[in-house]
Every structure is written in structure tokens, then in C-alpha cells.
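Handout, section 4.2: multi-component inputs.
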Amino acid sequence: MNNELFGFEINVWFDALARVGIIVGFMTVTVMALIYIERKILARFQMRLGPTRTGPRGTLQSVADALKLVGKEDLRPRMADPWTFELAPYVVFVPIFLGFVILPFLLDWHVRILELGLLYFVAVSSVNIVGWVMAGWGSDNRYAMIGGLRAAAQGISYELPLVLALLAAAMLAGSLNLNTIVVAQAHIPYIVWQPLAFFIFFVAALAEMNRPPFDIPVGESEVVGGPFVEYSGIRWSMFFLAEYAALFILALIGASVFLGGWAWPLGEELGRWWQLVLVSAKAGGLIFLVFWVRASVPRLRIDQLMSYSWKVLLPLTFVQIVVNGAVLVYDWPDVVLLATGVVGLGFLFWVTDRAVRRPRPRPALVAQSEAAR
Amino acid sequence: MEPQSIDQLYSNYLPVLIATIVGFVLVISALLGSRLLAPFSREREKATTYECGMLPIRRASTNVGVRFYLYAILFIIFDVEAVFIFPWALSFVGVGAQAYWVMVAFIAILGAGLGYAWKKGALQWR
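Output:
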């Protein structure tokens, strides 16, 4: 069987290999660029300059970092479990890398658009939580252990709102095929009909990536880097690579499912370059939002974090799905979606504001000891 | 969605297989590159577990708080539910209103379960 790639007919195996190869190069460059951009943007938020010395305006900073990491000694603590410790970077990186397969970059350029693309993505990407626990458990270090468990608890808690929010949007398109979802948004992106689902997706994606404000698994000030305490050199950089690749993938998924990917607002009939501009602008906007949140929101406590997912986001996604179902079955006008979405978003903001201002309940042990005194 | 032939299915998921292999090769080659370039010394003290300067007492991988376990069980229940919702969400429009109300009942039952866990304090981090 043959496939077409850039106008050439080639064997399916070579086709897939060539496309994955392009992704590898693309991913490396993107991750390096993202690290540089994040440092620059964060520096601007904090009224600093960021990297300036390496290369023109510091653009070669990531290259220098990568070289330094390759040349750094790769340590393994004596007490660490060799298998889980050495395998953890694979288990964290490979599932995230697999997410690149279904991304709809352009109308006619992607690795492969699967009919069950969204399901594939949520199934594959969540495997990396296992890698985090392996890193935490295998290091035989208390910080790493606590960090790994926190990563697991947070990852599984925010997995559900993420999956169901994506599903709410996919219901409108009636398909899990990402290209179909994008084409369905040729005129109006789904963020208009599903503002609540978009917000939930964004928050849950932040948590899945362990990005601030959901970074207690890797918080430097409490668990000294969490599962990565004992990792150094290139092994550590694999986790970092996976983190930024996940950032890129989730931004592109969000751009495709909620912002119309390469289609909106110019429709399908436009050149490759316009599609590229649209996709990069939308994904870039989401990535900037992630950096912005990192610069402006303090870290959440773990009780706030877990409650927020289970008591606020999860029930609201169920409500969103039930509303979507009613609108689709009874052919109600789309304005109902917009109205319920805005009301739901308002409710979510109100609940969040209230929860943030509430003081922390006294832990049971402290209350007991105070009563005994 | 027209049914796919087995050949098509294979060719569709071929990139997944290749991406898996390429992902592993990427990590292996990075580790090998570092093995070639990075210095290595056999000093024993370097391989002690990091704990802010003290020597750690006992192994770290011993007991785990039971609260993590509670969340894991809740997650399994709701993840299975999500698996049921996925095929329903794509096909209920064709089946009609009955399919919709059946799923509403299903979600309501699980919602009641979530409410019970909430009431019992299983969602409260202690």
C-alpha cells in the first residue's frame, strides 16, 4: 500500500516513519523555543530581562542548556530501585510523544488522523502518570515519594474533567476525529457554544501538566522538585522534554477542539500558509495564557486542589454533558448552549472565588491536640 | 463512519506503532549520547540519597497515606463511567430521546454516588 507525502507516492511504512521523523525534529526545536520563550516572558512579567548573554538576545540559551545537560554526569542513588528508576523517563516521555500522532496541524498535514483520535489521545497520554509514580517510588527518596504520590493523585483527579470537557465539545461535532471536529467549526468555534467546557479543559490541562498553580507535585519549596530530586543530566531532561511536549500537544488539542484549529475564521478553502498562521496563533495564544497564569497565580494547597476537581469541575462537566445532550436530541437552538455555558461559567467563577477566600479547615490532629491542652 | 477493513485499520495504527518505537529510540539515544559525553566518577558518597544534608533513616518506600487510595478508587469508578459515555455521546442523536434519558439516569445514579462520597467526607483532604 502506498501513501502520498508532499506529492510523492511512498510505502506506508516509510510514510509513517518520515512523518514521525519530521515530528521528532519539530518537537525538539519547538521545545527549545518554548523554554526560551517562557523564560523571556516570565522575565518580562517580573520586570527582568531573562537570558541575554548566549547568542543574539539569548536565543541560544536552550541550546547551551541542552549541551550542558548531555554533558552532565548521570547519577543513580545507591538505594534506588534500578528498574523503576531507569525506566521512569521512558514511561513518562513515550506516552506524551504518542500524542503527536493525532494532532491536526493543517488540513492535509498530520501524522495520521484516527477516527477515534480524541479517545486515543486521552487513553495514551494518561499513561505517563505511571511514569511519575515510578520515578517517585524508584528513587527511594522521601521528597520523590511524596511528589510522585501527589502527581498521581492530581493526575487522576484532573483526568476526568479534562476527558469529559473534551467529550462535551466532541458531542457537538458528533465525532472523535479531530479533523472532523475542526471542519465542524469552520464558521463558529466551539468556545462560543462551550465556554464552560473550555475553561474546565484549560484548568484541567494545567493540572495534568503539573504547571503552576497546580505544581505541588514538583514544588521546589516543599518537595524540592518532587519525583525528579534524584535525577540529573540527560535523564532529568527527558522529564523536561516531556513536560514541554505535553504543553504543546495540549495547546494544539485545545486550539483544535475549542478554537477551530486551522479552519476558523477563514473556512476550509485556504492555503497551507494561512492554516499554519491560524494554528500557530491559536496554539501560541493558549501557551501564552499558560505562562501568564504561571506568572500571576500562587500555588494551590493540596486540599483546595483535590476539592476543586472533585466537587466543582467534575459535577459541572456532567451538567454540561447533560445540557449538550438535551440540545442535540430535542433540536433546541444553539443559543441555549451559549446561555447555559455563560451561566455555568459565572457559577464556576463565583464558586472558585468563594473557595479561594475560605480559610483552611483545621487538620483533625491539630484540633485534637489543642483540645487535650 | 463507514466500517473499516482490517488492512485500513493496520495502516491507520501503523504510525502509532512507529511512534512508539521512535519514542523509545529517542530516549535510548539520548541516554547513550550522555553515556559517551558525560564524565563519570566512582565516588561512593555521591550515590547517597538526597535529604537536605542528613543521612536518611530507613527506606522511603514504606507506608502510603490511605487518602491516596480513596481517590484512586473514586477515579476508577468515574473513569469506567467515562468509558461508557464515550460511545453514547457519538451515537445517541441517531437513537433518539430514549437513549438520552437512559444516560441521564445513569449519570444521575453516579452523581448520587459522588454525593454520597462527598457527604461521607471521602472528597475532603485530611
